Structure formats: C-alpha cells, structure tokens
Amino acid sequence: MVIPCHPPKNSSDITPFQLTLIAPSTRACNISAPFTDECRTAEQAAPFINKAFTDYAIASVGEKAAILSVMLFETGGFKFDRSHFPAPGRPGQGTRNLMTFPFVHQYALDTPSTHSRALALAGTNATDPSITNDTMNAVRDLVLGDELGFASAMWCGSTRPGWENYIAACVFTGVTEDRAAVWEKTVSVLSL
C-alpha cells in the first residue's frame, strides 16, 4: 500500500479507537504475558501521547504517524518500555520508543524534573566508558514513568528531522518493510 504525499494535515487528538485500529493488541494487557507491569492499553496511552504531542507542538498527521508507528513497533504495541531482546536487553535502552542510552541520557538531561539526578548519575558524557550498566539503567529509570516515557519519542522526533533520520538516530536501526508497513497503516488511520 502506497500512501500518497499530501501537504501536512493537522489532526486532532489521537483516540484509543485509532490506536486499536493501528495495533489491535493495544485493547488489553494480557496478565499472563511477560512484562505485564510495563504494558499499557490504548486507553491508558492516549492521554499521555496527546499531551506530549501538544507539549512538543506536533500537529500534522505525518509527524504523528511517524512517531506513533515507531512507538508501536518498538514496544510491540505498548507491551514494554525497556529493552528485553535479545535477553537480557541493552543496558539503558528504554522509554516508549526504546531509545538507546545516549538519547535516554540526553533526554533525562533535557528534562527539568530529571536533569540534576541524571547529571549526578552519569555526568554529561553518555559515552564515558566508566558509566556502568547499572548506572545506564538508573538513568533510564528516571524517564520511564508514563508521562516522560510516552513523551520521549516526541522529544526525539522534535530534535531529529524526518522519519528515517528519527529511526536511524534515536533507535539505531534502519527502515525495513515491516517498520514501513506500521508507518503506512498509522498514516492511513490518522488521515481518516
């Protein structure tokens, strides 16, 4: 399915219904699944997503679709907020778009409520070899709450232009067919 390019269309708030159209698994959290404490439903996620879109002045369907599609893809439909795969996961990687540690660290430094704690834990250089895995995880944990965890993708998207750059720079991966399919479906649903 090819989604034609159109001038930016501003969209209204994302609804739980839209999220479940894009990712049906967001209807519920399976209590027997792994990482149930990390799982969020569409109903739980939508208010945090909409607040972050407002806070970061993200209004067009294309921007929202780019960010949402990465969030849904990276977390298996909001089923987790930390890197678990391959086990035990990459130290310090997390939030609702699974940013790698250098970006988690910068996000924690850029966020007023976590700045001083992130600075005390890891200083200003995320690539300092003396930063331990436990320290990376502690910095990540500063931004895992729902408000900051869901807003991390908007922060990253607002500081890195373009969907492909966003994926390459914040998630350290490339555009694949399955990733593009989620983005295309998200654009389609949000354009309705």
Overall body shape: globular
Number of strands: 0
Number of domains: 1
Radius of gyration: 16 Å
- Global structural class: mainly alpha
Written overview of the protein:
This protein is mainly alpha-helical and 192 residues long. The protein has one domain. 52% of the residues lie in helices and 0% in strands. It contains nine helices and no strands. Helix 4 packs across helix 6. The longest helix is centred in the first third of the chain and has 14 residues. The radius of gyration is 16 Å and the shape is globular. The protein starts with 15 loop residues before the first helix and ends with a helix. 42% of the residues are buried. The N terminus is likely disordered.
Note the topology.
Blueprint: H1 16-22, H2 42-55, H3 61-74, H4 101-110, H5 115-122, H6 133-142, H7 146-159, H8 163-171, H9 177-190
Describe the structure concisely for a colleague.
By secondary structure, this protein is mainly alpha-helical.
Name the descriptors.
single chain, 192 residues, mainly alpha, globular, 52% helix, 9 helices, disordered N terminus
